[in-house]
Amino acid sequence: MGLFDFFKKDKENKEQQQALDEGLQKTKTNFFDQLSKAVVGKNTVDESVLDDLETLLVHADVGIDTTVKVIDRIEKRVARDKYVSTNELDRILREEIVGLLDAHGDTTGSRAILDRPDSPGHPFVIMVVGVNGVGKTTTIGKLAHRFHSAGKKVVLGAADTFRAAAVDQLIVWGQRVGVPVISHGMNTDPAAVAYDAVLKGVEMGADVVIIDTAGRLHNKVNLMNELSKIKRVMQKVIPEAPHEVLLVLDGSTGQNAFLQAKEFTRATEVSALAITKLDGTAKGGVVIGISDQFSIPVRYIGVGEKMTDLQLFDRHTFVNSLFKK
């Protein structure tokens, strides 16, 4: 890496850190303002402090089960150390949250494409799932931008054929990013679109093929059948496809995102998560809870409107930003 590339990378890292800090501002302001009030005038972490902390974690949409885990871990540390001051609570809470995220974090899957020097002979296929309105198609566009900017060849497949807006939106993203989009239009067979997109990826020696799918949950049986069919036809071209099933969730919906995760993990084998719209909510704790409860790694988080605001999720950077005063 030359000196120019080093400074360029350093600038990009600082810009991403700033975007992350700003994107989590509502969550941390809401949480730490309340935490400060809970411990005011107290010197030690006692039962009442833990009760208040439990309430705050639930309100931050960390989720009941994950909150209970965190409180239980802190209780054990307090019992072991005999005396834990309220000044130490931030540090302990940070360590315990990182510990939970460490259990379900990895750097494999689609994010590893950025570090791969060349294609292994076929494209890495990502099937993207999620309900309408969570930012699914926008996330695909931003992913395409990330890969394309890194010098990777990308093909998009517009297999959400039940909404004209979804097909049109993906085509616009393809033009904006500068990558081909395979589309058969609205009310066509989604599996046929996916097949042609993967085939196109193989023919042009692409690194990545990203397939958009319909975001309907009103009938889980139909959804399951549709996703299974898409997988089967893609496997006629690449037997291992899809290599990743990426579930996109809207972080601002809080507990509703938990319900969506539950439904989609029942309908298909979700292997990674992208959690969007964290900049517009005080419910950023949902990242912690969903990762813990479903034992699925978070690959990406959305912290703003810009194309670069879909960031690779780094659990340590995320928690450090969350606790930054």
From TrEMBL:
The UniProt record lists the keyword ATP-binding: no
Compartmental location: Cell membrane; Cytoplasm
SMART domains xref list: AAA, SRP54, SRP54_N
Entry keyword Lipid metabolism: no
Ligand binding (GTP): 130-137, 212-216, 276-279
Pfam family, one: SRP54_N
InterPro entries according to UniProt: AAA+_ATPase, P-loop_NTPase, Signal_recog_particl_SRP54_hlx, SR_rcpt_FtsY, SRP/SRP_N, SRP54_GTPase_dom, SRP54_N_sf
All residue ranges annotated as the SRP54-type proteins GTP-binding domain in the record: 297-310
Reaction(s) this enzyme catalyzes, per UniProt: GTP + H2O = GDP + phosphate + H(+)
Membrane topology recorded in Swiss-Prot or TrEMBL: Peripheral membrane protein
PROSITE patterns: SRP54
Main location: membrane
Domain of life: Bacteria
Gene3D superfamilies with a match to the protein in the record: P-loop containing nucleotide triphosphate hydrolases (3.40.50.300), Signal recognition particle SRP54, nucleotide-binding domain (1.20.120.140)
Keywords assigned by UniProt, alphabetized: Cell membrane, Cytoplasm, GTP-binding, Hydrolase, Membrane, Nucleotide-binding, Receptor
EC number: 3.6.5.4
Its biological purpose: Involved in targeting and insertion of nascent membrane proteins into the cytoplasmic membrane. Acts as a receptor for the complex formed by the signal recognition particle (SRP) and the ribosome-nascent chain (RNC).
Family: Belongs to the GTP-binding SRP family. FtsY subfamily.
Assembly and binders: Part of the signal recognition particle protein translocation system, which is composed of SRP and FtsY.
Name used for this protein in its record: Signal recognition particle receptor FtsY
Taxonomic source organism: Hymenobacter bucti
